[in-house]
């Protein structure tokens, strides 16, 4: 939770003694953050889109939502390109290993 606070993703309340107060809305926000992080989205993108995803209002959400979806699609496309390169590298290594094992016999 402190990491999310340090990243500017949450702003917890404070009790009189200075301890953090994680209310239910903050906990709900953390669940959204975790889900997006587990999907591989960068913190920068999450930070930019988070207000429209968690504030409960829909004012301006369509414009921000469209931009967010465009960014997510771009991130997904870059990820797919990296996966394709890794698959090609894996296939090349598999071919090398098959050939090396065949010549060892």
List keywords for this structure.
two-stranded antiparallel sheet; mainly alpha; 105 residues; 2 strands; single chain; elongated; 4 helices
Concise summary:
This protein is mainly α. Helix content is 72%, strand content 4%. The relative contact order is 0.08.
Produce the secondary structure layout.
Elements: H1 2-6, E1 13-14, E2 20-21, H2 24-38, H3 43-54, H4 61-104
Antiparallel strand pairs: 1-2
Helix pairs in contact: 2-3, 3-4
CA-based gyration radius: 22 Å
* Principal-axes shape call: elongated
Low-confidence parts, pLDDT < 50 over ≥5 residues? none
Number of strands: 2
Number of helices in the DSSP assignment: 4
Lateral arrangement of strands in the main beta sheet: 1-2
Task: Give the mean pLDDT.
Answer: 86
Helix content: over 70%
Order of helices and strands: HEEHHH
Tell me the quaternary state. Answer: single chain
Q: What distance lies between the first and last C-alpha atoms, to the nearest angstrom?
A: 56 Å
How can the largest sheet be summarized?
2 strands, antiparallel
Q: State which percent range the strand residues make up.
A: under 5%
Structural class: mainly alpha
Keywords: DNA-binding
Organism: Streptomyces luteosporeus
Protein name: MerR family transcriptional regulator
Domain HTH merR-type: 1-52
């Amino acid at each position: 939770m402190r990491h999310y606070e340090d990243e500017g993703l949450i702003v917890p309340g404070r009790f009189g003694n200075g301890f953090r107060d994680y209310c239910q809305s903050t906990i709900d926000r953390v669940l959204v953050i975790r889900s997006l992080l587990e999907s591989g989205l960068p913190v920068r993108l999450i930070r930019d889109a988070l207000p429209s995803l968690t504030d409960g209002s829909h004012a301006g959400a369509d414009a921000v939502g469209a931009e967010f979806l465009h960014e997510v699609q771009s991130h997904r496309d870059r990820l797919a390109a990296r996966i394709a390169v890794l698959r090609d590298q894996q296939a090349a290594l598999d071919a090398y290993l098959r050939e090396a094992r065949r010549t060892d016999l």
